[in-house]
Every structure is written in structure tokens, then in C-alpha cells.
């Protein structure tokens, strides 16, 4: 099977700063329109905003504001592939998500609710730890991988 080539793709680097979220969201809008159905766009935008906010507030909470957060997005004919990279410590994403799902009363708390939103909005959601390229000052990074599919129009 031949790998599908992206219709659009984007790689952006952001500082660890919630002020960067506005720039991120405006770039997404330019990238997604007119290729992604509007409801899918809003779902992806919400999931990416939550992932970025978590990287700033949690993964990078003890790191300098210049610590990079990378975003890679590929728009395909009937799907979007998103990778959000942070430089924070290892985190048991799947374990935390399962813990929240098993304790619905935690949904009333601010902690972790966004993880459930991301899981509900995306068709695939994973968080992995990887070795960085040698020239990267951070020896390991985390990657939040999200995928969202949709049916062909028509």
C-alpha cells in the first residue's frame, strides 16, 4: 500500500508561553481551511489547544519560557495527523486517562478533564517518550499523537 501524501502540512515551534496559543490557533485555521470539514476543524482545534496548554502548564512548568514546543500537522484527504512535542519529564498519559475515566467524580475537578476531551474528540490519541536528535539540547522528548478521520463528502 502506498503512503498517502499530505494535502497540507505544517511544522511550527512555539515558546513555553500560553500567549503563543493565539498564534497556534490562527495558523491552524489557515492550514485546515478549506480541506477539513468545519466540525472536524473545531474538534482538532480544541484537542490541540488542550494539548498545548497541558504542555505549557504541566510538562514545562519548571522549564524556561524559551523551551520549545513543536507542532507538526498533516492534512490528508480524509484525516488529520497531529504531533505535539514537549520537553517535559516522562508522564504516564494512558494511566492518568484510565484513572480519570474510572473516577467520574474527577471530572468535576480541573485536573485531567482535558485528557478525556481529547480522547473523545480524536480517533487516536497516544503519548510517547522518544530520544531526541543529537543536536537537540533536550535528550528526550514527549510526543502527543492525535489522529482524526472523516468520511468523504458527497
UniProtKB/TrEMBL annotation:
Keyword Cell membrane: no
InterPro entries tied to this protein: HATPase_C_sf, HATPase_dom
Single GO MF descriptor: ATP binding
Transport found in the keyword field: no
UniProt keyword annotations, A-Z: ATP-binding, Nucleotide-binding
Gene3D superfamilies: Histidine kinase-like ATPase, C-terminal domain
One Pfam match: HATPase_c_2
Record-given protein name: ATP-binding protein
Organism: Spirulina subsalsa FACHB-351
Amino acid at each position: 500500500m502506498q503512503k498517502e501524501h499530505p494535502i497540507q502540512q505544517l511544522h511550527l515551534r512555539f515558546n513555553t508561553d500560553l500567549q503563543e496559543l493565539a498564534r497556534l490557533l490562527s495558523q491552524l485555521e489557515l492550514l485546515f481551511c478549506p480541506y477539513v470539514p468545519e466540525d472536524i476543524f473545531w474538534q482538532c482545534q480544541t484537542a490541540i489547544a488542550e494539548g498545548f496548554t497541558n504542555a505549557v502548564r504541566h510538562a514545562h512548568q519548571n522549564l524556561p519560557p524559551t523551551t520549545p514546543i513543536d507542532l507538526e500537522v498533516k492534512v490528508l484527504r480524509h484525516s488529520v495527523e497531529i504531533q505535539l512535542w514537549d520537553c517535559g519529564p516522562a508522564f504516564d498519559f494512558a494511566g492518568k486517562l484510565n484513572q480519570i475515566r474510572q473516577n467520574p467524580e474527577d471530572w468535576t475537578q480541573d485536573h485531567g478533564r482535558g485528557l478525556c476531551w481529547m480522547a473523545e474528540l480524536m480517533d487516536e490519541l497516544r503519548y510517547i517518550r522518544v530520544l531526541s536528535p543529537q543536536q537537540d539540547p533536550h535528550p528526550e522528548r514527549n510526543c502527543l499523537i492525535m489522529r482524526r478521520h472523516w468520511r468523504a463528502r458527497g
